[in-house]
Structures are given as structure tokens and as C-alpha cells.
């Protein structure tokens, strides 16, 4: 039976500057069984640099982000007294006496992750005291007024809990009780973090690779680092597709920088002639697939503003991210559409496969630039029609700063960013939102699964180069696999070779193309190129891919750079690659598991990034401060690549300057 529901007329959005992700979340998740969003968190925390001798007083300018940096208030974690504290004190710092005294020559390592353990001995010194200087627990309630949300523990707090939960002749830690006390394991709240109660956790593995070492009799220089940790809130707070992840990542980065500077002031009450502050290397093994992949991205802007605020006499700051694991997920496509007479140019059609049993909303971002000249400010120069399974085509012009609904289960939102480049081009963002296809035990609206067809037509006077990206999709509940990601289905995309082996980038895309060979004009092409993590797309952060240690082959899942000349503010390839697999039949790389003393193998570029952080931190400890972390990594990767003698060739778009040796000594060998 044919579906008779049609897209509504274009309606102006209530707040043009509001994130469409927030609008969709607020309306769609009310009846899903998730906690209802309670209000909206804005970009309320100003990042300020701390000048030497300022005694903690902030300096101008305040760094402000756009209205898009918003998120629903996490239930129970918002600190009601924060606004009054910020107005009275002007900053969000704790009293300096709460911060630890650290050895001279310390290098600070920031770790932004999830399920970070605070009691592992590999993060303790020989006396059994923690090397974690501070840990912001974003998802915990009852925090101090100087934090906007969550709670924070400092080295003295962690040491007190370690002492409280150690017992017996060997002074063993009751880790289960310790993790519950620090809020890292919560079995009562349905959506709370509890990975540390299982065999492995992402944060434990990352933390160990970044700064872990044996405390007894081990002269590993990484022991001279101190860790500033940020435990991200449960996934319910930032959404299955990471809709609000930018909000938490930006605040986490700001918190780490301000705490590092505050600890430096605590340890240098009479500062001399610089460099001021501690060298700081921050690992962020998170990210999103969709989003603008240059300096206009939210996280890229935050990093740029941060680095611009640091004066030349400050110690260096480096931010390191993974390339991403989306290379084979069929979630990126491009279309090149020529203009035509009377506003009817080339058209394209791409099949979007929405999977059954998906308990989270799905999103497709469509981005393109258009010349200001000849534009009607009311309309985008691109016609869009999204046809659900069994639906009928409804082509029409696309209104700017407006949305159209398909019943209760789908929405198209079109926004336009002001022209901010010298070429005067406008950036258009079209977001297609689709409701979950399954809601067990719930009565909320469900979208039909199957083939949704996206139709695009150029209605402008210039050629349009269009990017389509399917946003990341994961389950909200811990341990659940109910978040099933959509994918683009194209007859021109080849997944396997004749022997049935998975194809990687080089086999099918020696260079990115605008049209598949043999396809008619306007046909979109699904690519492995440009699958790189959007958070890593800024050239001001270091970005690491993964490769296989035994033969040097790049990991098939390790995302590919654009591989084409880009503006100076874009990224065409990762910085370098580090080992994320031991061999074709040997899964992942070894590092700490959830339990103190355990070791597990985990794979992914999430664990290439902390190896790079460790390398840069060790270089800073040796006094190498003149070059950026990216420069240090690039130079070392080039040297290692020249000496490696791998039997396989490499793809620059996947391994950048080369395949580096790992600086991380594995705690044990495999059986």
C-alpha cells in the first residue's frame, strides 16, 4: 500500500541560530523512554589565559562560541550555583590550595575520554600516590559551584580514597568499591557509566597508552608526567550520534588548559621570565563523522582561539586526535552538479539504507558552498527531495533557515552560514533527521526502515560540489548494540575483490573522483576518501591513523584523508600512523583493561592517538619545546618510514608522513 504522508511546507525555524540537532532531540526523545531534556546548556564558560603574576585573575578576551554550541541539560548534574559563582568570581577555578604540588619539570598530559579509571597502579608513583592531578567527572551530581555541571576530584581526593580502600598485607585496592566511590561505576542508573565493571573500557586503554608505567623500580620517564583527566558523561547526555559531543569536548579542553595553568600558578607563586605554564599534550580519542571539515568546525574554532590566546612566552599546547574508524562504513558521498538553463541543472539520486532495529535517530548532513552572486537569499541553490520507502517524489525549492516535516518521523532542516572567506561563498547545511526504526516497549513514533532515496538538483547558476555524510550512530544504553547505523548504497561502490577480501582505499580510489567511471553525469560517488574524523580535520591538531605492525599495511578501518589540495585550513591526510594491529590474525594492541593489573587487546585509531601523545610528552620532558607536536611527529614518522623496510607500500592519504614506531612498551606479551 502506498504511503500517503507528504513533506510539509517549509516553515521558518523558531531560532535561526539554534542547532537543529537540539531541536530534533527536544521533540523526538520525549516519548522514547530517555530522560526528558531539562532546559538547554549554553556556552557559558569563558576560557581565559592566566597571566604570570595575575594570581589567578582571568584576562580578556573571553572566548565565545556560536549559539550552535548547546546541549540538553543532563538530568541531575547541572550545578545551580554556577551562574552566581561565575558572575561573582569571573572564573571557574577551584581555590589554588586544592591543586597539587608537582615536581619541577613536569609535563601535563590531558586525557578526554569515557570510563577512565582513577585507581590503576600504572598511574601511581612508587609511593602509591596517584599521578592524576585532577579529574572532572562530567556525569556526576552534587558538584561545587565553580563547575557548570558534574564533579571534580583532585590528587589529594584520589589518594584519600586509595588509602581508604586499600587493605591487607599487600595493600591491595578494593577496586570495585573504589570505582563506586569515585562515581565511575553506577549500577543503579539505567544510563550511567559502568564499563569499569566489565573486562575492558575505552578510557582505561587510552589512559595506559598515554601515560601508564610500572611504579615499582621502573625508570620510564613518562612517570614524570601528571594527568588531567576528563570523564565524559554517559552517552545519553551527548546523544547516540554525538549530536552534542562538541559541547563537552570544547568544555573539557578548556578545563584542562585552565587547570594546567592554575596548577602552574600554584607551584610558581613568584614566576620568573618564562616560559610560563607547563607543556601540555591533550588526547581526545573521540569525534564525529559529519560536520564541516576545516577551520569552521566548532572544535576547530575552539582550538584556534585557544592557540591564538597563548602568548609566545607560554609553554606549548598540543591536541592529538584519531583519524577515525569509518573508512569502510559507506557513510560519505560526494556529488558534482552542473548548472542548467532556467535554473534546472544536473540532478543526482543516492540511496540511503535505514536499518531495521535501530533504536536511535539517524542523521545525514549535506554541505555545499555557493557563490553569493546571483543567490536569492530566501532559497538554497539546491533542490532536495527525500523519498521514504513507498513514498512519492515531491521535488521543490529548498528554503533557507526553514524546516520541512514528514509526519512525526523525519525532518529536513536547511541553514546558511554567513560568507567568511575571501571568495565570498556561503556555506549551506542541510540536515536530514530520521526517527528510530524500533522502540521496544515504547509508543514513540518509528520511521520505516529500508531504502530512502535522496534526490538533489542544482538550481543555481554555478556548479555545486556537495558532501553528504551520515553521522555516527551508537546505542544510548551501556553495552547495547541497538544503534544501527545507516549507510549509502550505490552500485558503483565495490566492497570486495574477486577473492572475497575487503577492499581498502587504494584498490578502488587511487584518486578521489567526482563521478564513478561509466556513470551518467551527476551520479554521486560513495567514497572512502574524506572519511577522516571531523574533529581531526583542523590542521592545528595532530591526527593519527593506524597500521599493522608485522607488515606495515594500513588498517582497513583507519579513515582516509581527502587526498586533494585543500585550503590552508583543511586536512588532506593524517599527520602519521602508529600501530593499532599486531598482525592479520592478531587482534589489536595490548594495554590496560578495566581491572587494575589486567591487560586486553583493543583495536582502532583511538589507540594510535595516545601513542602519539606519549611520544610528544616524552619529547617535551627532554626539553624539546621549540617545535609543535605535529612537527615532531612528522619528522619522526619520516625517519621511521625510511628505516622500516616494510614489504608493503603505503597510502599517504592514510598514513601521512609515515608509519612510526610505537613509544609504548607493552606491559606483557601475548600468550
Please, could you describe this protein's structure?
Helix content is 18%, strand content 21%. It has 671 residues and is an alpha+beta fold. The strands form 7 sheets. An 8-stranded antiparallel sheet has the order 1-18-19-20-14-22-12-24, with helices on one face. An 8-stranded mixed sheet has the order 6-5-9-4-10-11-25-26, with helices on both faces. A 4-stranded antiparallel sheet has the order 16-21-13-23, with no helix packed on it. A hairpin with a 4-residue loop joins strand 7 (166-167) and strand 8. Helix 5 packs parallel to helix 10 (609-621) and helix 7 packs parallel to helix 8. Residues 634-671 are annotated as: Disordered. This is Peptidase S8/S53 domain-containing protein.
What layout of secondary structure does this protein have?
Layout: E1 11-12, H1 20-28, E2 40-41, E3 71-72, H2 82-89, E4 107-113, E5 132-137, E6 151-154, H3 155-164, E7 166-167, E8 172-173, H4 175-181, H5 202-211, E9 225-231, H6 235-238, H7 245-267, E10 280-284, H8 298-309, E11 317-322, E12 332-337, E13 347-354, E14 362-371, E15 379-380, E16 382-387, E17 398-399, E18 402-406, E19 410-417, E20 425-434, E21 450-458, E22 464-470, E23 487-489, H9 505-508, E24 525-526, E25 542-548, E26 576-581, E27 589-592, E28 599-602, H10 609-621, H11 629-644, H12 652-655
Parallel strand pairs: 4-9, 4-10, 5-9, 10-11, 11-25, 25-26
Antiparallel strand pairs: 1-18, 2-3, 5-6, 7-8, 12-22, 12-24, 13-21, 13-23, 14-20, 14-22, 15-17, 16-21, 18-19, 19-20, 27-28
Helix pairs in contact: 5-10, 7-8
